[in-house]
Amino acid sequence: MATYDFLFNGLGLRGWCDGGKTSDAPVSMADLLAKTGVKEEQTIWNLPFPSLNELNDACGSMAQSRDVTKGVEDGFLAAKDALRFVLDPLTQPLSWILDFTLAAFEVTPWWIMFPLLMVVVYLASKSVRLVGFVTVCLLFLALVDHYDHAMQTLAIIFVCAVLCVLFGVPIGIAMSRSDRLQRITIPVLDMLQTLPPFVYLIPLIFLFSVTEPKLYGIAIILYAIVPVIRLTDLGIRLVDKDVIEAADSFGMTDRQKLFGVQIPLALPNIMAGVNQTIMMSLAMVVIASLVSAPGLGVLVLRGIRNLELGVGLVSGLGIVLLAIILDRVTKAALNRVNAAQKQ
Amino acid sequence: MIGDAAVTDNVKISIRNLYKIFGADPKAALQHVLDGTSKPDLLKEHGHVLGLRDINVDIREGDITVIMGLSGSGKSTLIRHLNRLIEPTAGQVDVDGEDVLAYGEEKLRNLRRQIMSMVFQKFALLPHRTVAENAGTTLGVRGVSKREYLVEADKWLDRVGLHGYGKHYPHQLSGGMQQRVGIARALTSNSPIMLMDEAFSALDPLIRTDMQDLLLELQKELHKTIVFITHDLDEALKLADHLVILKDGYVVQQGEPQHILLNPNDPYIEDFVSDINRARVLRVRSIMTPLDDSGVPPEAHGEVGFDDTLESMIARSGGDTSHSYVVVQNGKPVGTLEMTSLVRALVPRIASESGARKY
Ligand SMILES: Nc1ncnc2c1ncn2[C@@H]1O[C@H](COP(=O)(O)OP(=O)(O)OP(=O)(O)O)[C@@H](O)[C@H]1O
Ligand SMILES: [Mg+2]
Asked: Which listed ligand is nearest to B51 at the C-alpha?
C-alpha cells in the first residue's frame, strides 16, 4: 500500500498501472531496505514528495528516477559512437601537438631551457628584476627535483594557451561584429564558466580514452578559452566610437580597420583575457592530472592518494610559483601595452 | 574671404531636399514630416527623431562654409551626410556634380580617401601610433608606403607648427597640439574638401583663437573647400564666407554672415546676434553706401578700407558722428560711409522674448 495509490485510483488509472510490467531498472538499496523494514504509520507530517520513485510505488507503470539517469546514459552511449566518429579525427592533431611539445620540453636540456625562458621573460616584460625572480624560482624547482614535472605542466599550458588564443580571438572578433552571434555565444560561455571543472571530465572520459593527451587538452581548452573570447569581444566593442568613425571617414576597409585600429586598441583587454586564460589553464592542468595529464598535478595527486604530506605540499608550492611566474610575466607584458596606449 | 581672387562661383557640394529621420521606420515617419509634423510632435507621437528637414545648401569651391546651431540642431548629422557616414532618409547630395548617394562601396571609399577629409571634435587620433604615423594615416589607407607617407606627414606637421614632434605619441601632446595633428592628418590626404566638426570646441579660448588664425592662414594658401561646424557665433563670423544657421534640423537662415548679422530673419537668430560685439564684427563694406554717379563727395574726412571693422572706424573718427569717409577697395573709391549710419548699425538688437534663450 503506497502513499499515492489514491491518486491513480481516483483518476481511474488503476488498470493501466497494474497492466504495465514493473520497471526493469535495477533495484536500489533503499528499495530492498524498504521491503524488509516495517512500514511507518502515514501522517501528514511525513508525507513524502510525489517524486518519481514514490509514484512508481503506487503505480508500476510510472518511471523511476533510475530510469531517468539510465536514459541519459543510454542516450549518451548511443550518441557516443557517432560523436566519436566525428570528433576523434578532428581532435587528433591536439594529441600530436601535446605529445610533440611535451617531448620537446623534455629533450631540451636544462642548460638550454633556462636561458631560453629567461630570454622569453625578458622579451615579454623588459624587466630584469622579473627575469631574476623567475630564475630563482626555476632554480628552486630544479633543486628539489621538480624541474621535469614543472616543464611538463608548462608545456601543456603553453600548447593550450596558444590554442585558446588562436581560436578565442577570432571567435571574440566575430562576436563583436554580430549581436546575434553574441546572443547565442554568451549562454554557452556562461555554461562553460560555471560548470565545475570535474563535470567537464565526465563526458570526455566516455568519448575519448583516458590514455590520450587530447582528453585533458580539450578539458583545459574548453575551461580556459572563455576569458579570452569574452575580453576580445568586450575590448573591440569598447574601442572609442570616435576613432572608428575617423577610420571610416578616411575610407579604411573593414580589414584595415580591424588590424589597424580595432585589434590594436583592444589589445589591453585581449591581453587581460590571455592572462586569465593562462591562469585558468594552470588551474585545470592540475585537476586534469586525474585523467593522466602529466606534470606537478600528478605529484599533488600522489600526495592526496598516499597521504604523502611533504610531496603534496612541495609540489603545491611549485604550482604556486609557476602561477606567480606566469601571472607576473603576462601582467608585465600587459602593462607595457597599456603604457604605449595611454590616452 | 569675400573679394579673395580664389573664390569662384563653382558649387562644389550641393545638398538638395535632404531629410534624415532616426528611428525604426524612417520612411513612414517621413510622410508625417512632409505633412508638417514638428520635431517634438514626431518624437512624442511617432517615436522618431527628426534629424534634418528639407536642407538645401550650396557649398562653393574655395569657401569656408560654417554651419552653426545649438546642441542637437543637427550639425553633426548634416556634415556626416556629405561623406555618407550617415545615410539620408530622402534627398540628394552632389559633389562635383555627381550624386554621392548613388555611389557603390568602391566609389564611396574613393571619395573618402581622395576627395574629403575630416577633422573631429575629440581629435580621434590613434593612441598606439606616433604623431607622424597618425598624420600619415590618410595616405596609409590608400596603400602609400610608410616611408613615403612619413615624408608627406612631416611636411604638414611642420606646416601646422609641430616641427619635431613626429616621433611623439598623441598622449604626450596637449589638446591644441593634438588637434593640430588632426588638421595635419586631414591636410596630408591632399583632398580638396575638408570637413571640420566642432574642430576647435574642445580647446580653451586662447588656443582656439590660434587655431582659427592657423586655419585662415592655411586657407589663404590652399583654397580648400571647408565645411566648418561650430556653435559659437564669434567663431562662425570670424571664419565664414557663407553661414548656415540650423535649428531643430532645418535651415533658419543662410547667407553672407554680415548680412545675417544686420538682417536676422528669426527671433532665434536675433537672440544669437544680440550677444555679439557688433563693432568688432561688422565691416565697412556691409554698411557703406555704394558710389553713384555723383562721384566722391568733397566734404569727406578721409579714406577708409573696404574691409575695416566698425571698431577701427570709431577710433579713427574719435567718436564724432558728423564725419563721413570715402571707402576704398584696391585703391579705387567704391562707396561712402556716414558715421551716423555706422552708429545706427550698432544699435543693439534686443533679444526677443521668444528667442533662443528658452531652448
Ligand atoms: N543615431 C541617432 N539616433 C537617434 N537620434 C539621433 C542619432 N544621432 C543624432 N540623433 C538626434 O539628432 C539630432 C541632431 O543631432 P546632432 O548630433 O546632429 O546634433 P549637433 O547639432 O551636432 O549637436 P552637438 O552640438 O551637441 O554636437 C539630436 O536631436 C539627436 O538626438
Ligand atoms: Mg555634433
From this structure: 1
